[in-house]
Amino acid sequence: MVGMTTREAPLPSAAARARSFDAAAAQYGANRPSYPPALLDALEELSGRPLAGARAVDVGAGTGIASRLLHERGARVLAVEPGAGMAAEFRRTLPDVPLVRGDGNALPVADAHADLLTYAQSWHWTDPARSVPEALRVLRPGGALALWWNTDAVDIAWISEAADRSGRFFGLDIPAEKRKAADRTGQADPSGRLDFERRVVRWSRRVPLDVHLANIASHSAFLLTPQDERTAFMTEERAHLLKVFPDGVVEETYDVYLLVAVTP
Ligand SMILES: C[S@@+](CC[C@H](N)C(=O)[O-])C[C@H]1O[C@@H](n2cnc3c(N)ncnc32)[C@H](O)[C@@H]1O
After folding, report:
1. What would the pLDDT profile of 207-232 be if each residue is shown by its tens digit?
2. Which ligand 1 atom is nearest residue 28's CA?
3. For the whole prediction, is pTM greater than 0.85?
4. Is the pLDDT confidence value at 81 over 70?
5. Which pLDDT score is estimated for 13?
6. Which residue's alpha carbon is at the smallest distance from atom 4 of ligand 1?
């Protein structure tokens, strides 16, 4: 029966999930959504300076989706990425942007180096007890830490239904988790040292169903799901989505949650 596949094994640890992207870097780079121009406008507004000429350190840079946008706006970007597979894909697609291997808990960057420190979909992989002091060390006074996440817009019926199906597959209440993501401020810095301003930017993209399914499959929980279970889920998902999008073009809608804290 369609929609009844469930994942058999327990979910892997956060550490395993944080490393999961390396084996699927090309899939990640080709199918994950980027970020809208309005996000970069909001970033400039909240950080109080233009991106052009800014020294930006983009951490958890992955395949370079965010680094590319910062670079295109004229920022002098240094990318930091822990994973070998993601770093290799980054270097293949953005050879003009320097990248060093490292992570947000111990940044390979000098004190007071950066005007802007960015984490696009990657802050949640760090330990804030370490990554917050590291951010304060690496930013110059008056510099800005910016965190953002593309989050599925679960107020849209088909997106909420799809999140319910993923939730049943993993044994989680995914729509509730996505709604909780609406307030990441408290989780971002439990120590309260950073004073975040918050913006939500809604945007959409229209992509072939295959790209949409490959995008879903590039999330860490699916990457670590045995292939036969993943294939069974995606086959069912395709059938559901073809009922909503009979022409095979899916309109994905995201809310980007942006948090920006300017240092004293
Ligand atoms: C969801 S991807 C985001 C990639 C990219 N920033 C983007 O916007 O597409 C998360 C990235 O965080 C990296 N990562 C994992 N643990 C990390 C850590 N402790 N600090 C920084 N990045 C980490 C992963 O290797 C992966 O490349």
Report:
1. 999 999 999 999 988 998 999 999 99
2. 9
3. yes
4. yes
5. 81
6. 62
Pocket of ligand 1 (CB under 6 A): 18, 21, 32, 59-62, 65-66, 81-83, 86, 103-105, 120-122, 125-126
Contact call for residues 4 and 239 (beta carbons, < 8 A)? no
Query: Which amino acid, one-letter code, is at 204?
Result: S
For the chain, the maximum distance between any two Cα atoms, rounded to a whole number of angstroms, is 58
Distance of CA 264 to the CA centre of its chain: 27
- Please tell me the number of Cα atoms within 13 Å of 129 on its side-chain side: 0
CA–CA–CA angle 183, 186, 189 (5° rounding): 130
Residue 8: pLDDT band (50, 70, 90) is: low
* Atom 9 of ligand 1: nearest residue by CA position: 65
Q: Give the strand pairing for 99-101 and 196-208.
A: unpaired
Residue given tokens 């369609």 in the structure block? 2
Closest residue CA from atom 19 of ligand 1:
126
What local confidence, expressed as pLDDT, does residue 181 receive? 61
Q: For the chain, how far is it from start to end, CA to CA, in angstroms?
A: 57
What confidence category does residue 186 fall into, taking pLDDT thresholds of 50, 70 and 90? Answer: low
Q: Which helix (H) or strand (E) holds 228?
A: helix 227-244
- State how far the Cα of 4 lies from the Cα of 94, in Å rounded to an integer: 41
Q: Which atom of ligand 1 is nearest to the CA of 58?
A: 6
